[in-house]
Amino acid sequence: MEQQPLWAPWRVEYVSSPKTGDCIFCAAVEDRDHPLVVVRGSRCLIMLNAYPYAAGHLMVVPNRHLAELEDLDDGELGELTALTKSALAALRTLMKPAGFNVGLNLGVAAGAGFRDHLHQHVVPRWDGDTNFMPVLGGTRVISEALASTAPVLRRLLTAEREES
Ligand SMILES: [Zn+2]
Predict the structure, then answer these.
(1) From the CB of residue 138, how many other CB atoms can be counted at a distance below 10 Å?
(2) 62 alpha carbon to ligand 1 midpoint, in Å?
(3) For 146-159, what is the mean pLDDT?
(4) Long-range CB contacts (< 8 A, 24+ apart) of 19-26?
(5) 22: pLDDT confidence band, cut at 50, 70 and 90?
(6) Pairing between strand 99-104 and 44-48?
(7) Is 117 a catalytic residue?
(8) Residue 43 vs residue 129, higher pLDDT
(9) Which of 34, 57, 117, 119 does the annotation list as catalytic?
(10) CATH number of 23-163
(11) Among 17, 26, 23, which Cα is nearest to 51's?
């Protein structure tokens, strides 16, 4: 049987509270055992959001610390799009959402929480899910949801990338 990395729940708390000035995305690029990263391409990666708007909220992140879409080269743009497709396919298989929100918040005025390192959100949606997060509740529940979702997505996305 294939060996899966051990999940260390305490690390979610660790990566959820970066020190001021740290870039959570550069940290994910550099930490090869990052618990929220579910797949790595050569130029971008996919990770779970530690503060999800909905279950299965993923982010596609270029490895380079860049704020603007026009700063990405064609290779990075291509992989950002390819990994966004992979994220949609994996979430569709795993969670059967009714729809998705996909997109970039560029700049603080547009609602970017981390404005210096761009990241494409992929958020699965279900009919009538606007009150999902209050129902889901506290950090502990979110940590447990992330802990169970990450390994499943990792397997799905790795299998899909090996096929293509
Ligand atoms: Zn960064």
Answers:
(1) 7
(2) 9
(3) 89
(4) 23/65, 23/114, 23/116, 23/117, 24/50, 24/114, 24/117, 25/61, 25/65, 25/114, 25/117, 25/119, 26/65, 26/117
(5) confident
(6) unpaired
(7) no
(8) 43
(9) 119
(10) 3.30.428.10
(11) 17
DSSP 13-53: HHHHSPPTT--HHHHHHH-TT-TTEEEE-SSEEEEE-SS-S
More confident residue, 24 or 17: 24
The answer to whether the beta carbons of residues 39 and 90 sit under 8 Å apart is: no
Predicted confidence (pLDDT) at residue 164 exceeds the cutoff of 70: no
Span from the CA of 24 to the centroid of ligand 1 (angstroms): 7
Question: Tokens 């799009």 belong to which residue?
Answer: 81
Per residue in 58-92, is it b (16+ CB within 10 Å) or e — as a string? bbbbbbbeeeeeeebeeebeebbebbbebbbebbe
Distance 48 CA to ligand 1 centre (A): 16
Ranges of each domain in the chain: 23-163
Write the CB contacts of 98 (distance below 8 Å, at least 6 apart in sequence): 125, 126, 127
pTM assigned to the model: 0.79
Round to whole Å and give the CA distance between 96 and 18. Answer: 32
Distance from residue 28's CA to the centre of ligand 1 (Å): 9
